[in-house]
Design a protein that fits this description.
The protein is about 30% helix and about 15% strand. It is of the alpha+beta class and about 350 residues long. Belongs to the thaumatin family.
Amino acid sequence: MPSIPFSPLRFSVLLPFSLARRLTSAPTRFASTGSWVRFDWANALRFASIYDDDDPSDLSGFFQRVSICNRGTVREKAPFSIKRVLEYRNEEQRIGRKESIFLSTLRAKRSEGARIFTMINDCKETIWPAVIPGEKFEGGGFVLKAGQSMVFTAPVGWSGRIWGRTGCSFDRDGNGPCETASCGSTLKCGVAGKTPATLAEFTLAKLDFYDVSLVDGYNLPIAITPVNGNKHGGGNCSVAGCNSDLRENCPNDLAVKTVACRSACDVFDTDQYCCRGTYGGPSTCPPTQYSKLFKSACPGAYSYAYDDRSSLFTCSDGDYIITFCSKRKGSGATTIKSIFSWIIPMFATVISWWLWI
């Protein structure tokens, strides 16, 4: 085997490519610790006690400290996003809560079977999420400004639905109308919202079931992202939801101005479109032209009553991020990264060979 003489020119040319290859081959090594660590919640609570962080001012620093002694993989997002983890101080002051949402959430996670729900508003405008049954979720309704997040816990056995209301105008007593998905005229919902409304539905058990449904129409994009779930428990822990804005392509028959898109069942109220009567089964109620349109825009959401095969998801022992106005980010960056991940090493090999000969 011939010896390879050292060449300063070859070294100076190949070094940048070698470093670039290292960076592209292991990007998570340089990722934000707080946003890519699967947290051990007992350790998180222990750190909160040690550092007296009942209400930490530096959440990023807190989670970086917590991650030092945490276990788990680096490729699973934590339910707390550092960039928009919570605006819990303002919320606590508004409702007069004595105990920190932060610490109470950590305590609740230690309880057997608790699930953490993180709701994020990625919309450009304020929305008013609603939940039924909502005892564990601010009484069933609350305000969520653009960019804000709220965290809740729900026990195993909870079964309910979550949706977002738009264009609301509530007074100090929590009374007022909404442009879409209102549940009467109150902030706190005790009944289902008015159609059309995009729904996030959950049934929590040993194996959780969850889905995003357009059966009652569409008013906001919603995505459900499981985190820290156990796929070995029988679930697939896949992302469910709709990232497209159906209002842009809503058929004229179903459009409600430009604020929402009604379901065909809601508009026409026939057995065929509502999957009832002689059409009340999966074999007699196939997808219609309208449900096919919904499905093409939102493949991961229910488009009609019997759209179970590609729309119902399961996960074991996971937490959930519910994102309103979710967009699949990073497709362009991923493409560029993937291109450079093979172009740079190939280019370096060619130059190395050229210098060698």
